[in-house]
Amino acid sequence: MPDDQPFDLVGCLARVRSSDQVAARQLVEHLYPLVIRIVRAHLPRRVPEEDLAQEVFLKMFARLEQFQGVVPFPHWVSRIALTTCIDHLRAQKRRPEYRWADLSEGEAKVLDAVTTDEAAAPDDAFAAHELVHRLLDQLKPADRTVLQMLDLEQKTIAEISLLTGWNASLVKVRAFRARRKLQKLFAELKEREGS
After folding, report:
1. Does the global pTM surpass 0.70?
2. Domain spanning 1-94: which CATH class is it, in words?
3. What is the CA radius of gyration of the chain?
4. Alpha-carbon distance 160 to 114, whole Å?
5. Strand, coil or helix: 166
6. Can you give the pLDDT at residue 25?
7. Number of other residues whose CB lies within 10 A of the CB of residue 133
8. Alpha carbon distance 15, 11 (integer Å)
9. What is the pLDDT of residues 81-109, one digit of tens each?
10. Which DSSP category does 5 fall into?
11. What top-level class would CATH report for the domain 96-195?
C-alpha cells in the first residue's frame, strides 16, 4: 500500500468481513501501533506484550460482526485492548506486598529522596519508574488503569470516559480513591523501611 494514500478503513473492513486475508493483515498492521501502546501502558506482570496484543486482535476479529459503527473503529478496538488488559490484571489475584528489601538500590534511593524532599539523581529516573509501577501493581486493575491514563499518559477525563465506558464522575471518584490507596501503599513501604 503506498504511503501517500490514506488508509481506507471502511473498505478494508468490508474486505475482512468477506474473508480477505490480505485485508486482515493490513488491518492489523494499521491498528498495531494503537494496540501495542495500550498494551504497554497496561501490561500485566508476566504476560508478554506480543501475546497480549495478539489476544486483542483475535478478540477483534471474533467480534467484528458486533461492530455497528456507532463509535470510530479505532475506539472500538481500543476498548477491546483496554478490557483485555484489565481482565489479565484481574486474573493476577495475588498482589505482592513489597518490602524495602525487595527494592533495588536505585528504587530505595528514589524512595528516600522523595520522603526526605531531596532531589533524586537524574540517573535514578528508571528506578523511579520501576518503583511507581511496583506500587501501581498493588492496586486493583481499574484503579491502576485510571491512574495510568490520568497521571502517566496525561489523558483527559473525557478521553478516559470514552476509552473505558465509565462516566466522568466515576473516573474522578476512581482516581481520587486510587491516589489515596497509592499514598497508603507508599506510606506502608516507607514505614517498613524504618522497622
Report:
1. no
2. mainly alpha
3. 20
4. 29
5. coil
6. 94
7. 14
8. 6
9. 999 988 887 776 544 445 445 555 665 66
10. S
11. mainly alpha
